Amino acid sequence: RVLGPQEPLINKIRDKFLMDIFLKIEKKYKMEAVKDLIRNAQLELLKVKELKSVEVVVDVDPY
After folding, report:
1. Torsions phi, psi for 16 (to 5 deg)
2. Which ranges of the chain does DSSP label H, i.e. alpha helix?
């Protein structure tokens, strides 16, 4: 399940705009497969010229 994208309460730090996307992964999925999927999505972002400046930070357990 996906929640977002949405702006966090503090949505800009050091001239970088922030957006949050939360993924809830069910236990039936293997973590390694999920990691590969996220890595592949990051690599696809880098292929798009207009999105090369986008920085993706993955936080496995944000709370």
Report:
1. -115, 130
2. 31-47
